């Protein structure tokens, strides 16, 4: 028996804990528990399952997260963490047990038992780690069992990108009737995220200076658009080239003509850059599908919309643009993120480094 203090009232109550194989093991457990109580680190045994804790945790923390983040957490819990470890008693989790669970997700966690991508499993691991760290803070767990788990070795996939010629062919093939030509052009020229492109207003675009001010983003929850700050809260200005400015000017004329044609029925109160003919905002999921369908017409790798961002970054890095400049254009909080994501795109120009050093020290 031990006495556990109620933090709300300050009173202590007796608590019986049994199930030990020997008298000595029971005594050792009692002494350890008393020592933990004195240090304020005691965690009482509970029958709470992982699934119950995750449900409680996401309900409590959803208000502190972006709607898209909260949705991705819930989806991950429902699809992967719940079926994998949801029925396990929370306090029975161990690093070795979780290592096996993550391994099983890698190998069989997808649809019809197919493997999951490393990125998907890593995200599930990150969600669980965050949830269980809060369980430690709430004195439900003594330690976080996700810390110390072993992850299978995986090969980091390379990003699918287009070459400069392939991108030129794609952009050059967009005719005047292609509604989203300016959208694809701006995406390729800046590396902007989908949500940043579709949240853009004309007041954020300085065509005379060739500057786009990225102030916000939009995410889609079911059929609803929700505005948020850019990822990592990185508001930024991005310069664009003359061809992109021309494309945007042409698109603005088209949009103004549509506004006149629709008259009072025009619904573009937000002054968004990219809209339907009647001014309605575009849903992000539609734009992703439209780009995928359009890129399939090329005799080149079919890209996803986000891979225009990878194409932009890869082109700049391979042509010697400094990493910190590329990081700023992409909205990465730290250039080390850019280095990690695009390490394979940075030229290994050791010979040029030797040449530069030699000229600096010994002259040309």
Explain the overall architecture.
The chain is mainly alpha-helical. The protein folds into three domains: 2-39, no CATH class; 50-137, Orthogonal Bundle (DNA polymerase, domain 1); 164-345, hpI Integrase, Chain A (Orthogonal Bundle). Helices cover 49% and strands 8% of the residues. The protein is built from 14 helices and seven strands. It has helices spanning 23-39, 50-61, 67-85, 95-108, 118-137, 164-172, 181-190, 194-198, 242-262, 284-295, 306-318, 323-330, 335-341, 350-362; strands at residues 2-5, 12-15, 205-206, 211-214, 217-221, 224-228, 236-239. A three-stranded antiparallel β-sheet has the order 3-4-7, with no helix packed on it. Strands 1-2 form a two-stranded antiparallel ribbon. A two-stranded antiparallel ribbon has the order 5-6. β3 (205-206) and β4 form a beta hairpin. The longest helix has 21 residues, at 242-262. It is globular, with a radius of gyration of 27 Å.
Class computed from helices, strands and strand pairing: mainly alpha
Widest sheet, order of strands: 3-4-7
CATH uppermost class of the largest domain: Mainly Alpha
Enter the CATH topology name of the largest domain: hpI Integrase, Chain A
CATH architecture level-2 label of the largest domain: Orthogonal Bundle
How is the main sheet built? 3 strands, antiparallel
CATH superfamily of the largest domain: Intergrase catalytic core
Q: Determine Rg (CA atoms, Å).
A: 27 Å
Mean pLDDT: 85
Shape: globular
Span between N and C termini? 83 Å
Into which percent range does the helicity of residues fall?
40-55%
Low-confidence stretches: 33-37
How much of the sequence lies in strands comes to 5-15%
